[in-house]
Write a structure and sequence with these properties.
Length: 271
């Protein structure tokens, strides 16, 4: 029976085993999905050994998302652009295919949670400029968003993203972030602000128009202070759990031959 797993360090917090385990049960598929803690120095050895043990693929989380590209034989365009992979497939001929489904998961979650959101209707604004922001920029540009406004506490990191991803990006100073919100058709929080145990979210969202769709990639807690503030000004708020669920779809389909559903029951299964 086919085996898959998620690797990271640490890995105990990952919801992926619950998610894929739920799908395996739901579709009555004989297979397994486990979590594997892998230290940096063991990464290559792990990737070389797993296929012989019946593994057909894996998800990759921090800190290995960039490093796995070194060992891939084939890298999808979107993983190349993002500069990181979260989904590996071990092909029968021994080659490793690396893909990044984070951006796909992000867009699929928005389409499900805010079906009226039209990517082409106006700019998207992103708070934060870390690894998660990269995947989202690629996905938004791909979806046809005309302008992407990035604001980050450390402005240089936002400037670096503009250097990588080009003219469609406008950088706004962190102290101006609240003011720039009036232009946004979509607002995305990719910072760790408002996450359990992290600093509070203090940027005022009062300038948002109620038509703006607002989403947070943080899902712990599920209802972040950021989403509460967005709902308080009348916006549609989409939580980040769905992004995690949707990013798992392409891998599961590739490894186990069944495209899985993301619905209420799926959400309940991982919470
Ligand atoms: P990831 O790779 O998952 O996106 P990260 O690289 O740790 O995560 O990025 C965390 C983001 O939260 C960064 O944009 C960070 O801003 P800096 O680039 O200035 O570090 C942002 N962040 C964290 N704490 C913050 C705070 N107290 N105020 C503003 N932004 C904060």
């Amino acid at each position: 029976t086919p085996r898959a797993c998620v690797i990271g360090n640490p890995i105990s917090h990952s919801l992926s085993p619950k998610l894929h385990g739920y799908w395996l049960d739901r579709y009555d598929i004989k297979g397994s999905y486990t979590a594997l803690q892998v230290a940096d120095q063991d990464l290559e050895k792990t990737l070389r050994e797993l296929p012989a043990q019946g593994f057909v693929g894996m998800n990759v989380t921090l800190p290995h998302k960039m490093a796995v590209l070194e060992f891939a034989d084939q890298i999808t365009d979107r993983a190349t652009l993002i500069g990181a992979a979260n989904t590996l497939t071990f092909k029968e001929d021994g080659r490793i295919l690396a893909d990044n489904t984070d951006g796909y998961g992000f867009i699929a979650n928005l389409r499900q949670g805010a079906p009226d959101w039209d990517p082409k209707a106006g700019p998207a604004m992103i708070f934060g400029a870390g690894g998660a922001a990269r995947a989202i920029i690629v996905a938004l540009a791909d979806a046809g968003v005309p302008e992407i406004i990035i604001s980050n506490r450390t402005r240089a990191k936002a400037e670096a993203l503009r250097a990588d991803f080009g003219a469609r990006i406008r950088v706004v100073d962190w102290v101006q972030a609240g003011t720039a919100l009036a232009d946004a058709n979509l607002l995305v929080n990719t910072t760790s602000l408002g996450m359990k145990g992290a600093a509070d979210f203090k940027v005022s969202l009062d300038a948002l128009r109620p038509e703006t769709v607002v989403t947070d990639i943080v899902y712990n807690p599920l209802r972040t202070p950021f989403l509460d503030a967005a709902e308080a000004v009348g916006c549609t708020a989409v939580d980040g759990l769905g992004m995690l669920l949707h990013q798992g779809v392409p891998g599961f389909e590739r490894w186990f031959g069944q495209r899985p559903e993301v619905d209420e029951a799926t959400r309940r299964a991982v919470l």
